[in-house]
Known about the structure:
Elements: E1 2-11, E2 14-24, E3 29-33, H1 40-47, E4 55-60, E5 63-64, H2 73-79, E6 80-83, H3 95-105, H4 110-123, H5 139-151, E7 157-161, H6 169-184, E8 188-192, E9 205-210, E10 213-216
Parallel strand pairs: 3-8, 3-9, 6-7, 7-8
Antiparallel strand pairs: 1-2, 1-4, 4-5, 9-10
This protein binds adenosine-5'-diphosphate and magnesium ion.
Amino acid sequence: xxxxxxxxxxxxxxxxxxxxxxxxxxxxxxxxxxxxxxxxxxxxxxxxxxxxxxxxxxxxxxxxxxxxxxxxxxxxxxxxxxxxxxxxxxxxxxxxxxxxxxxxxxxxxxxxxxxxxxxxxxxxxxxxxxxxxxxxxxxxxxxxxxxxxxxxxxxxxxxxxxxxxxxxxxxxxxxxxxxxxxxxxxxxxxxxxxxxxxxxxxxxxxxxxxxxxxxxxxxx
Length: 220
Ligand SMILES: Nc1ncnc2c1ncn2[C@@H]1O[C@H](COP(=O)(O)OP(=O)(O)O)[C@@H](O)[C@H]1O
Ligand SMILES: [Mg+2]
């Protein structure tokens, strides 16, 4: 599903990622950890095309990112949903309209928009807040809206960059449960976090970035 083959990334003279090789099978949920500045965000950016590797190859669901034709870029973007630490919701749109935005940009039929948005809100347990505005929601609720927005078009891969960074510990665990439920329905998930607390007792694979290299910790 996701493969990294000998991937390196440099900024100026600084090596952020060094010769990384990794396979994440379809349907797996993995954590990417490591101290601040270790390259976790860069690693995810390579997958959602915000950065390009200096060496090596990345494929997502057979699409080769490093030799993607411009016409394949929308296809790749449709396979990937991304969630950030700061939610990035649009405050003057309702919850429903925030989640619907990507579908409307793609000119999906309004009936399909309604069905997919309802499905996505159901998965994050927020159907009752569809008509609310982001500012009236708690941090955990706002992150669940952001997750609904990321999964509304049913991507194969969900990427999350410090998704619990702005949340208290209990809310963070709630959000992890939401990711788990989504993963159980088949979505491959990569979660970058520097928060070791979140990984305690996990049965998921834990990958650690440090000094540019990637190592595997296994279930903690
Ligand atoms: N656009 C950039 N230009 C130069 N250096 C960058 C850029 N983005 C990140 N870096 C550097 O790359 C390293 C890894 O950053 P990042 O991927 O954000 O790490 P993490 O997410 O693990 O905290 C850091 O030293 C950071 O300062
Ligand atoms: Mg980061």
